[in-house]
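A.,

Following up on our hallway conversation. Structure tokens first:
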């Protein structure tokens, strides 16, 4: 079944009496706004249960996308005991099991007596050295300036690394782009010394960042920090080659560049290109202790070990000293035994084997999902060249199915989870009318799960579209369950 705008939808459009233009018209949007932390910041107090007494001094920060979506899924019957009955195309995690051509997955770890002690807040020295060596081997061959363990801080997860970095940034303007990784919203809201300055990326330009425009903004506004993911979550686009080289030059012009590079292996070669390539700003850094370039990465995505929570921050030595101090009061450091277990996994020959297997397997899944979406009439305008996400434009669907929140709620009825696009509209004050968001007509679909889960979710999308074709808009946009449970997971 193919859904396209045109004559076949005239009957649907005639049925679509709910031409919603604002939040107050939409049940899905009202449920979102009623969740703690999702009202405009000026509306206080905010509690999970408005009848409960507000805890003095506490303000709900608002949930990230997967927290809210998991919460809503549980209201519709989702549980981890019965998760095999659901297709979770929302969670930002890759499949963790064996894939063709990859090294054996770890099934046990050694726990030496010394590892029962706290690890240093900067991490185990041997692991820090292994990280530095991997960057040098992959991106810095022949360069005079090389990373050492003094340029690496091990952290318990990517968001811990981001929080450590944010905690040591002073009172500055921070440039960021929309859409981008949803946790940036909470970071920019929580660390209030960072004054957020947004730039909206354009689908017509394939969500390309204009480095020259950013440079002019830096000069005219005094922007001191640029924060972004590369490859970019959720659009699946990547800055590489000369464009990345030009971006890195900002780190020599009085601005600090913070790059979230968690998807650096998820690069899909086009015809004539080779598998096994990866991307990092480390390739274009001239002096590892002078260029103000901060890299955040780890085992979570590339090594497909999200449960290990072993990640790192790479940058100038004086940054690492600051991160050690902030880690002493923010998180206390990463898991000691797992840091030791991670060391052999960073051996360059093993990394090459992992990277090749990952790219071939995930490219197959990407092409499969794009093909099935096309068969359903949901052509992806900007196909992903990296990551494991598809940024799906719903604008050709009839109202009210053409917005991310309603599309998400309809799929919950079919036991499938996606992420509404509004969670990637980094909007720390939450004041914008959701219908005016540049991300309102999108959902993010993850092809991280195994193929059978992907097909289960795509079958659910087909059922929703077939229902609209056969029955019109009756029942669409209404009848959503209101109750929620406490969130249990948050990996996006």
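Then the amino acids I'd put at each of the 492 positions:
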């Amino acid at each position: 079944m193919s859904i396209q705008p045109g004559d076949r939808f005239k009957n649907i459009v005639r049925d679509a009496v709910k031409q919603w233009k604002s939040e107050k018209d939409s049940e899905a949007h009202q449920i979102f706004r009623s969740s703690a932390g999702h009202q405009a910041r000026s509306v206080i107090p905010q509690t999970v249960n408005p009848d409960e007494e507000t805890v003095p001094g506490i303000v709900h920060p608002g949930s990230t996308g997967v927290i809210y979506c998991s919460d809503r899924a549980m209201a519709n019957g989702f549980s981890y005991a019965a998760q095999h009955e659901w297709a979770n195309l929302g969670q930002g995690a890759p499949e963790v099991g064996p894939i063709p051509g990859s090294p054996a997955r770890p099934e046990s770890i050694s726990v030496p007596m010394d590892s029962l002690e706290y690890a240093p807040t900067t991490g185990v020295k041997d692991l820090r050295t292994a990280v530095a060596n991997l960057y040098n081997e992959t991106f810095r061959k022949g360069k005079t300036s090389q990373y050492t363990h003094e340029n690496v801080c091990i952290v318990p997860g990517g968001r811990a690394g981001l929080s450590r970095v944010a905690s040591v940034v002073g009172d500055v303007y921070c440039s960021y782009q929309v859409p981008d990784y949803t946790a940036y919203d909470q970071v920019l809201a929580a660390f209030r010394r960072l004054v957020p300055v947004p730039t909206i990326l354009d689908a017509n330009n394939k969500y390309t960042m204009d480095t020259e425009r950013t440079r002019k903004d830096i000069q005219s506004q005094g922007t001191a920090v640029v924060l972004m993911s590369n490859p970019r979550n959720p659009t699946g686009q990547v800055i590489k080659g000369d464009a990345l080289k030009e971006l890195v030059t900002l780190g020599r012009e009085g601005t600090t560049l913070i790059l979230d590079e968690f998807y650096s292996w998820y690069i899909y070669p086009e015809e004539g290109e080779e598998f096994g390539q990866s991307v990092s700003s480390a390739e274009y850094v001239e002096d590892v202790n002078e260029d103000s370039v901060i890299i955040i990465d780890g085992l979570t995505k590339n090594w497909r070990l999200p449960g290990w929570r072993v990640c790192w921050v790479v940058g100038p030595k004086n940054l690492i000293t600051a991160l050690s101090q902030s880690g002493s009061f923010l998180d206390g450091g990463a898991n000691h035994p797992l840091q030791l277990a991670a060391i052999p996994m960073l051996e360059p020959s093993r990394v090459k084997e992992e990277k090749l297997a990952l790219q071939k397997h995930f490219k197959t899944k990407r092409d499969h999902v794009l093909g099935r979406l096309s068969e359903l009439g949901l052509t992806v305008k900007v196909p992903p060249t990296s990551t494991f996400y598809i940024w799906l434009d719903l604008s050709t669907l009839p109202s009210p199915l053409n917005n991310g929140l309603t599309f998400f709620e309809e799929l919950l009825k079919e036991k499938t989870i996606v992420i509404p696009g509004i969670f990637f509209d980094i909007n720390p004050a939450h004041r914008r009318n959701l219908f005016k968001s540049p991300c309102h007509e999108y959902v993010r679909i993850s092809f991280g799960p195994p193929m059978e889960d992907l097909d289960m979710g795509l079958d659910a999308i087909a059922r929703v579209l077939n229902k609209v074709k056969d029955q019109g808009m009756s029942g669409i946009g209404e009848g959503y369950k209101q109750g929620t449970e406490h969130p249990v997971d948050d990996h996006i």
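The chain has two domains: 7-92+388-471, 113-347. Curious whether your intuition agrees with the design.

B.
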